Amino acid sequence: MKNNRLFKILYYILEKGKVTANELSDKFEVSVRTIYRDIDSISSTGIPIYTTQGKSGGIEIAKEFVLNKSLLTENEKKTDTGST
User: Fold this and answer.
1) Which domains, from first to last, does the chain contain?
2) What is the chain's pLDDT, residue by residue, as a tens digit (84 residues)?
3) Are the CB atoms for 79 and 8 separated by under 8 Å?
4) Which of 6, 24, 27, 56 is the most exposed place for a label (fewest CB within 10 A)?
5) 3-class DSSP string for 38-50
6) Sign (positive/negative) of CA torsion 78, 79, 80, 81?
7) Within the chain, where are the H helices?
8) What pLDDT does residue 33 have?
9) pTM of the prediction?
10) Can you name the residues that pair with 2 across neighbouring β-strands?
């Protein structure tokens, strides 16, 4: 289940651009602390994800990063970010 959530978080951030931890927490119905642990897990895979503090801060993935969809299963390609 955690891996599924990590994928959904990654996909959601790629779709939205910059998001907040609170937004992700609400979206995926987990604590903000869990979101930060998930962000650390995503980062440890080599995906260039980072956080910035402040009023206009948030969680982003480097603009140069592109998810190679050939690495995804058919199920993952069809995953709707609207469901958790």
Assistant:
1) 2-71 (1.10.10.10)
2) 688 899 999 989 989 999 999 999 999 999 999 999 999 999 999 999 999 998 889 999 998 887 665 555 666 556 544 444
3) yes
4) 56
5) HHHHHHHCCCCEE
6) negative
7) 2-16, 21-28, 32-44, 74-78
8) 97
9) 0.74
10) none
Inter-residue contact 59 to 19 (CB < 8 Å) = yes
State how far the alpha carbon of 3 is from the alpha carbons of 41, 45, 61, 74, 82, in Å. 10, 12, 18, 16, 17
Residue 28 CB neighbours (<10 A): 18
Amino acid at 38: D
What letter represents residue 32's amino acid? V
